Amino acid sequence: MMLRRLLIVGLVALAAVSALLVRNAVRDPMDARRRALEQNLARIKVEENAAGAARTPSLDAIETAITSRETLWTALVPSETPSARPDLDKILAGVVATRHGIGPRVRILTPLNPAGDLYGVGDLIHGVAITSITDEAVVFSLTQDGQTYTKTLARE
Predict the structure, then answer these.
(1) What is the per-residue pLDDT across 62-96, written as a single tens digit (0 to 9) for each?
(2) Which of 35, 69, 75, 95 is deepest in the core (most CB within 10 A)?
């Protein structure tokens, strides 16, 4: 008896869901919104500008205006002039190599980090690489345009 009631309830639920699916398939729920949108779009009037011409700009005029601006292109296209020799003294200003270190690493003080950190060969400080560390000095190098520039800082 209980099984029969569950079967009837299940069939009634299945019939209700099926009826809703058929109703949604026949009657589109977005149809009213679509009609309202089409009516609103039909009410909009297209206005022309004062000259009566369309507002389509001439592509040739735009291209001429853009290419004639030299200051625009100097910012976007790098110059062909060779770059000047980097000033490693200025780049490494305030950098101090100390005698403190652990193994192959040495404590280097920078203006941003006065307490210093441990650096090893290959590490970068302000974009300049450490190439060698000795008991007396630390050698920094910077490669630019195929040339390598070096700076030796004595350990203090």
Answers:
(1) 888 888 877 776 777 666 666 678 888 999 999 99
(2) 95
